[in-house]
UniProtKB/TrEMBL annotation:
Family: Belongs to the FldB/FldC dehydratase alpha/beta subunit family.
Name of the protein: 2-hydroxyglutaryl-CoA dehydratase
Lineage, top ranks: Bacteria, Bacillati, Bacillota, Bacilli, Bacillales
Pfam families attached to this UniProt entry: HGD-D (PF06050)
Cofactor: [4Fe-4S] cluster
Top-rank taxon, per record: Bacteria
InterPro entries from the UniProt entry: FldB/FldC_alpha/beta
Molecular functions (GO terms): hydro-lyase activity
Amino acid sequence: MRRIGLTTTVPIEVLIAAGYHPIDLNNLFITSEDYGKYIDIAERDGFPKSLCAWIKGIYGACIENGITEIIGVMEGDCSNTKVLIEILKQKGIKVYPFSFPHTHKEEDVEQEIKKFMEIFGVEYEEVEKVRTRLNKIRALAKELDRLTYIDNKADGFENHLYLVSLSDFNGDVEAFENELMDVIDKIKGRKAKKKKLRLGFIGVPPMTGDIYDFVEKFNAHFVYNEVQREFAFPRADKAANIYEQYYDYTYPYDIEFRLKEIKKQIKERKIDGIIHYTQAFCYRALQDIIIKDELDVPVLNIEGDKLNRLDARTKLRIEAFLDMLSDLKEEPK
């Protein structure tokens, strides 16, 4: 199977039906033991210091790993992606376009996916067959999620790691399914965690993966990872077809649509507070204004840049936020 790079989650069912081996460049970048080399490659090629580290990392991962074809999401993702695509084209990489329409109308989403299928020469029936197969694995991800927020046995990092991996199934559908089943079996055998504070993580998946272990030092744990959960398509079983599934996917659409699901999960998971993660130089940081106005629980916004570890200042801010949540929880109703 030919490899094809992804700059974000797209209808992977189409690519697999077309015989491709999808690779999420974000995951390739951030899981590398030497992730910084990808940023260095981009900066040596002229990418400015004052640009999102994710964009530079995606570029470096694509170039360094010999990816010759990618899907370029032209609408519904980072605005910098459009320029990134132009640069990769200039480097001789073949780019296939895809868009999550800003209108967020079902008919427009359907039209975009149909165009995507035409590009890769696959039929609706082939795509639906793959979707049925992938949704069996997505059902396992839902089980892992339940083990996180209902049974309190899976930790926040495990939840983050396996849900975010559903963007490309770690490049191997069968192997990932087996790994996920093994992980779930091990987690089921644990005793439930007894943490005082229940946290939600919203925003793009973090560069700073140590945040999950850090909060556990303060009698807290993450029971909700917003965007990672969306990558796993938790409502896919309710979608009649691939068009409905990607219409219901919250990440690429407006903040109002995202907030409806976030509010629902805050209530269902009994969340005490939210950490909203944004990346330096990203427009999504401005959404924090709306988020804080709309949510009924305390929200802390933290920002990541190049480091894959929390810095001292951010640790202090998180610790103070958790102290406040603890005090609020102890106050008489």
